[in-house]
Amino acid sequence: MQYSPDIRIIRVMCTGRIDPFMILDAFLCGVDGVLILGCKDGECHYVTGNMEAKNKIDMTSRLLRIIGIDQNRIYFGQLSSAEGTRFVELAENFTRRIKEIGVLGTEIKEDKEELKFRLEAVKAAVEGEKLRWVIGKKTEFMGIGNKYGETFTRHEMDRLLDGLLMDEVAVREIELLLQERSLSVKQISERLKIPSNRVLRYIAGLRRKGVVGLERVDGSSPLYGLQE
Questions:
Q1: Using CA atoms in the order 103, 38, 13, 135, what is the torsion angle rounded to 10 degrees?
Q2: Whether CATH 2.60.40.1510 fits 182-228
Q3: H helix runs in 144-193, sequence order
Q4: Spatial distance between the Cα atoms of 145 and 33, rounded to a whole number of angstroms
Q5: What pTM was computed for the model?
Q6: pLDDT at residue 5, rounded to an integer
Q7: Left, alpha or beta for 72 (phi > 0: left; psi -120 to 50: alpha)?
Protein backbone atom coordinates (compact mmCIF):
# COMPACT_ATOMS: atom_id res chain seq x y z
CA MET A 1 0.00 0.00 0.00
CA GLN A 2 1.30 3.43 -0.95
CA TYR A 3 0.27 6.39 1.18
CA SER A 4 1.74 9.76 2.11
CA PRO A 5 5.09 9.65 3.98
CA ASP A 6 3.68 12.38 6.25
CA ILE A 7 1.56 9.77 8.04
CA ARG A 8 2.84 8.01 11.17
CA ILE A 9 0.88 4.89 12.12
CA ILE A 10 0.26 3.77 15.70
CA ARG A 11 -1.64 0.49 16.10
CA VAL A 12 -3.98 -0.13 19.03
CA MET A 13 -6.11 -3.20 19.74
CA CYS A 14 -9.33 -1.16 19.70
CA THR A 15 -10.22 2.47 19.01
CA GLY A 16 -12.16 2.38 22.28
CA ARG A 17 -8.80 2.36 24.05
CA ILE A 18 -7.84 5.72 22.61
CA ASP A 19 -8.09 8.28 25.38
CA PRO A 20 -8.73 11.96 24.51
CA PHE A 21 -5.55 12.97 26.35
CA MET A 22 -3.56 10.94 23.79
CA ILE A 23 -4.97 13.11 21.01
CA LEU A 24 -4.09 16.26 22.95
CA ASP A 25 -0.58 14.91 23.56
CA ALA A 26 -0.18 14.46 19.82
CA PHE A 27 -1.16 18.08 19.15
CA LEU A 28 1.13 19.30 21.94
CA CYS A 29 3.96 17.38 20.24
CA GLY A 30 3.31 19.36 17.07
CA VAL A 31 1.26 17.12 14.78
CA ASP A 32 -1.19 18.95 12.52
CA GLY A 33 -3.95 16.33 12.46
CA VAL A 34 -5.04 13.02 13.99
CA LEU A 35 -6.75 10.34 11.87
CA ILE A 36 -8.38 7.50 13.80
CA LEU A 37 -9.54 4.43 11.87
CA GLY A 38 -11.50 1.60 13.43
CA CYS A 39 -13.71 -1.32 12.53
CA LYS A 40 -17.25 -0.96 11.21
CA ASP A 41 -20.31 -0.90 13.46
CA GLY A 42 -21.25 -4.44 14.43
CA GLU A 43 -17.75 -5.79 13.76
CA CYS A 44 -16.05 -4.65 16.97
CA HIS A 45 -14.47 -7.56 18.88
CA TYR A 46 -15.00 -5.55 22.07
CA VAL A 47 -18.71 -4.98 21.21
CA THR A 48 -18.96 -1.26 22.02
CA GLY A 49 -15.38 -0.14 21.37
CA ASN A 50 -16.05 1.91 18.25
CA MET A 51 -19.11 3.55 19.84
CA GLU A 52 -16.99 4.62 22.82
CA ALA A 53 -14.36 5.93 20.41
CA LYS A 54 -16.96 8.01 18.53
CA ASN A 55 -18.12 9.65 21.76
CA LYS A 56 -14.58 10.42 22.91
CA ILE A 57 -13.53 11.82 19.55
CA ASP A 58 -16.71 13.88 19.25
CA MET A 59 -16.01 15.43 22.66
CA THR A 60 -12.38 16.14 21.77
CA SER A 61 -13.45 17.74 18.50
CA ARG A 62 -15.90 20.01 20.34
CA LEU A 63 -13.17 21.03 22.78
CA LEU A 64 -10.86 21.98 19.93
CA ARG A 65 -13.61 24.14 18.44
CA ILE A 66 -14.01 25.95 21.77
CA ILE A 67 -10.35 27.00 21.77
CA GLY A 68 -10.48 28.02 18.11
CA ILE A 69 -8.84 24.98 16.52
CA ASP A 70 -10.39 23.58 13.32
CA GLN A 71 -12.43 20.47 14.18
CA ASN A 72 -11.38 18.89 10.88
CA ARG A 73 -7.95 18.24 12.36
CA ILE A 74 -9.52 15.12 13.90
CA TYR A 75 -11.29 12.50 11.81
CA PHE A 76 -12.79 9.14 12.72
CA GLY A 77 -13.24 6.63 9.89
CA GLN A 78 -14.44 3.04 9.75
CA LEU A 79 -13.33 0.14 7.56
CA SER A 80 -12.72 -3.59 7.70
CA SER A 81 -9.26 -5.13 7.97
CA ALA A 82 -9.51 -6.31 4.36
CA GLU A 83 -10.07 -2.84 2.89
CA GLY A 84 -6.49 -1.82 2.17
CA THR A 85 -7.50 0.43 -0.72
CA ARG A 86 -10.06 2.15 1.50
CA PHE A 87 -7.34 2.80 4.09
CA VAL A 88 -5.10 4.49 1.52
CA GLU A 89 -8.04 6.56 0.27
CA LEU A 90 -8.93 7.78 3.78
CA ALA A 91 -5.30 8.50 4.63
CA GLU A 92 -4.68 10.45 1.42
CA ASN A 93 -7.90 12.45 1.74
CA PHE A 94 -7.10 13.34 5.34
CA THR A 95 -3.53 14.37 4.47
CA ARG A 96 -4.86 16.59 1.68
CA ARG A 97 -7.37 18.18 4.03
CA ILE A 98 -4.75 18.95 6.68
CA LYS A 99 -2.46 20.53 4.10
CA GLU A 100 -5.34 22.79 3.05
CA ILE A 101 -6.02 23.81 6.67
CA GLY A 102 -2.36 24.50 7.32
CA VAL A 103 0.02 24.16 10.24
CA LEU A 104 -1.55 23.65 13.68
CA GLY A 105 -2.49 27.01 15.19
CA THR A 106 -2.83 28.85 11.87
CA GLU A 107 -6.54 29.36 12.49
CA ILE A 108 -6.21 31.10 15.87
CA LYS A 109 -3.57 33.60 14.70
CA GLU A 110 -1.74 33.45 18.04
CA ASP A 111 1.84 32.61 18.99
CA LYS A 112 3.00 29.12 19.93
CA GLU A 113 2.85 29.83 23.65
CA GLU A 114 -0.83 30.77 23.45
CA LEU A 115 -1.56 27.65 21.39
CA LYS A 116 0.25 25.50 23.97
CA PHE A 117 -1.66 27.21 26.80
CA ARG A 118 -5.03 26.44 25.21
CA LEU A 119 -4.13 22.84 24.39
CA GLU A 120 -2.85 22.23 27.93
CA ALA A 121 -6.13 23.56 29.32
CA VAL A 122 -8.09 21.14 27.13
CA LYS A 123 -5.81 18.27 28.10
CA ALA A 124 -6.36 19.04 31.79
CA ALA A 125 -10.11 19.09 31.14
CA VAL A 126 -10.20 15.67 29.45
CA GLU A 127 -8.08 14.17 32.23
CA GLY A 128 -10.60 15.33 34.85
CA GLU A 129 -13.27 13.09 36.37
CA LYS A 130 -16.22 15.25 35.28
CA LEU A 131 -15.75 14.92 31.51
CA ARG A 132 -14.81 11.25 31.79
CA TRP A 133 -18.05 10.58 33.66
CA VAL A 134 -20.19 12.57 31.23
CA ILE A 135 -18.78 10.97 28.09
CA GLY A 136 -19.13 7.54 29.67
CA LYS A 137 -22.82 8.21 30.37
CA LYS A 138 -23.69 9.90 27.06
CA THR A 139 -25.00 6.80 25.28
CA GLU A 140 -26.87 5.68 28.40
CA PHE A 141 -28.60 9.05 28.84
CA MET A 142 -29.75 9.02 25.21
CA GLY A 143 -30.99 5.43 25.39
CA ILE A 144 -31.97 4.25 28.87
CA GLY A 145 -32.07 7.70 30.49
CA ASN A 146 -30.85 9.00 33.84
CA LYS A 147 -31.84 7.63 37.25
CA TYR A 148 -35.15 9.52 37.02
CA GLY A 149 -36.00 7.84 33.73
CA GLU A 150 -35.45 11.01 31.71
CA THR A 151 -33.97 10.47 28.25
CA PHE A 152 -32.28 13.13 26.13
CA THR A 153 -32.46 13.74 22.40
CA ARG A 154 -29.18 14.18 20.53
CA HIS A 155 -29.87 17.92 20.24
CA GLU A 156 -30.47 18.24 24.00
CA MET A 157 -27.38 16.19 24.80
CA ASP A 158 -25.23 18.23 22.42
CA ARG A 159 -26.43 21.51 23.95
CA LEU A 160 -25.75 20.30 27.49
CA LEU A 161 -22.35 18.95 26.48
CA ASP A 162 -21.28 22.17 24.75
CA GLY A 163 -22.12 24.24 27.83
CA LEU A 164 -20.31 21.85 30.14
CA LEU A 165 -17.22 21.71 27.92
CA MET A 166 -17.02 25.50 27.65
CA ASP A 167 -17.17 25.86 31.43
CA GLU A 168 -14.61 23.11 32.01
CA VAL A 169 -12.08 24.61 29.58
CA ALA A 170 -12.46 28.06 31.16
CA VAL A 171 -11.93 26.61 34.65
CA ARG A 172 -8.77 24.79 33.54
CA GLU A 173 -7.46 27.95 31.87
CA ILE A 174 -8.00 29.86 35.12
CA GLU A 175 -6.12 27.18 37.06
CA LEU A 176 -3.20 27.38 34.61
CA LEU A 177 -3.06 31.17 34.93
CA LEU A 178 -3.11 31.01 38.73
CA GLN A 179 -0.21 28.55 38.72
CA GLU A 180 1.97 31.45 37.57
CA ARG A 181 0.77 34.20 39.93
CA SER A 182 -2.18 35.58 41.86
CA LEU A 183 -4.72 37.45 39.74
CA SER A 184 -7.91 39.45 40.14
CA VAL A 185 -11.19 38.60 38.44
CA LYS A 186 -10.68 41.57 36.11
CA GLN A 187 -7.19 40.43 35.11
CA ILE A 188 -8.40 36.90 34.39
CA SER A 189 -11.34 38.27 32.41
CA GLU A 190 -9.07 40.42 30.24
CA ARG A 191 -6.57 37.61 29.69
CA LEU A 192 -9.16 34.98 28.71
CA LYS A 193 -11.58 37.40 27.04
CA ILE A 194 -14.60 36.15 28.96
CA PRO A 195 -17.07 38.26 31.02
CA SER A 196 -16.13 39.09 34.61
CA ASN A 197 -19.37 37.63 35.97
CA ARG A 198 -18.49 34.24 34.46
CA VAL A 199 -14.96 34.42 35.87
CA LEU A 200 -16.39 35.25 39.30
CA ARG A 201 -18.70 32.23 39.07
CA TYR A 202 -15.79 29.94 38.18
CA ILE A 203 -13.64 31.38 41.00
CA ALA A 204 -16.49 30.85 43.48
CA GLY A 205 -16.77 27.21 42.40
CA LEU A 206 -13.03 26.66 42.72
CA ARG A 207 -13.03 28.26 46.18
CA ARG A 208 -15.80 25.93 47.35
CA LYS A 209 -13.64 22.99 46.27
CA GLY A 210 -10.63 24.41 48.07
CA VAL A 211 -8.64 24.70 44.83
CA VAL A 212 -8.42 28.50 44.86
CA GLY A 213 -8.20 30.92 47.77
CA LEU A 214 -8.01 34.65 48.43
CA GLU A 215 -4.32 35.58 48.54
CA ARG A 216 -4.53 39.29 49.31
CA VAL A 217 -6.30 42.51 48.38
CA ASP A 218 -4.53 44.95 46.07
CA GLY A 219 -6.29 48.31 46.52
CA SER A 220 -9.91 47.31 46.05
CA SER A 221 -9.19 44.18 43.99
CA PRO A 222 -9.08 40.73 45.63
CA LEU A 223 -6.27 38.60 44.19
CA TYR A 224 -6.80 34.84 43.98
CA GLY A 225 -4.24 32.05 43.86
CA LEU A 226 -4.07 28.26 43.89
CA GLN A 227 -4.08 26.60 47.29
CA GLU A 228 -1.16 24.34 48.19
A1: 80
A2: no
A3: 154-180, 185-192
A4: 35
A5: 0.88
A6: 77
A7: alpha
